[in-house]
Amino acid sequence: MEEHLLLILLGIVVGAYGTLIGAGGGFILVPLLLLIYPHDRPLTITTISLAVVFFNALSGTAAYTRMGRVDYKSGLIFASAAIPGSIVGVFATGVFARGPFDMLLGVLLLVVSLWVVIQPTAPETPAAEDSAPNSRVLTDAAGTTYRYTVNRNLGIAISVLVGFLSSLLGIGGGIIHVPAMVQVLGFPPHVATATSHFVLSLTSLTGSVTHALHGDFARTLPRVIPLSIGVIVGAQAGAALSARLHGRLIVRLLAVALALVGVRLIVGAITG
């Protein structure tokens, strides 16, 4: 009972922060689970995390939908590209031992963190007419209008990689998708976090179903259930908080979390 309560509380924190920055919380949850359960295989950790990321993303998407910030057209295109990669990532997870897995995840998080810090602003997107190809005009529930242009082909290419890493590392992919959408594709940060959550809900569901068909959930449900309860609650809080923060601050919070977790995993992998 005590362990379940702690997992619920952990889920609330992970869900709130993950939804706030649009990353789904898996990038926080996986390293924490690696520390809490040091003897578990990477496959077990990623199975738990991916299922929890799905519930986090589903709850967060519902909240962002009410705010009117989800770009469904772009999200469906990106998800269609990411889903095949997420299936392949599930099968690749069993290849890694704990040491190399921790190191790979740590380096990935640290590199993305540095990238966000070095290039903190989104690229200038050409002013386009509302009817121009790939242009987007989105007005949220608060009346804020976002105008931007989407490089669809580049977004598809990025999404394939995101889908693969999503299932391989159990982090949901948002930790890569959000910076890429903001820094490379020119999405407004608030739209990027909301749309990323929508994509996450589809890719993490695909990865979780693949794990389920393999029977990977047989021994993980006692952890998945309390964590999922927590993230569903936390995601609503994170989405509400995001409405009060400037987009650049959200990106900075993302970078800080990435760096701290990445360094911790690298040090742990080196010291054994």
- Taken together, the total number of domains comes to 1
Largest sheet: 2 strands, antiparallel
Radius of gyration: 17 Å
Question: Helix tally?
Answer: 10
Shape: globular
- Tell me roughly what share of residues is in helical segments: over 70%
Share of β-strand residues: under 5%
**Count of β-strands:** 2
Order of strands across the biggest sheet? 1-2
End-to-end separation: 31 Å
* Order of secondary-structure elements: HHHHHEEHHHHH
Structural class: mainly alpha
Low-confidence stretches: 122-128
Report mean pLDDT, rounded to a whole number.
83
Describe the structure.
The chain has 272 residues and is mainly α. It has one domain. Helix content is 73%, strand content 4%. It is built from ten helices and two strands, in the order αααααββααααα. Helix 1 (2-20) packs parallel to helix 9 (221-242), helix 2 (26-36) runs antiparallel to helix 3 (42-67) and helix 4 runs parallel beside helix 8. The longest helix is centred in the N-terminal third of the chain and has 26 residues, at 42-67. The chain starts with a helix and ends with a helix. 52% of the residues are buried.
Features:
about 270 residues, mainly alpha, two-stranded antiparallel sheet, about 5% strand, globular
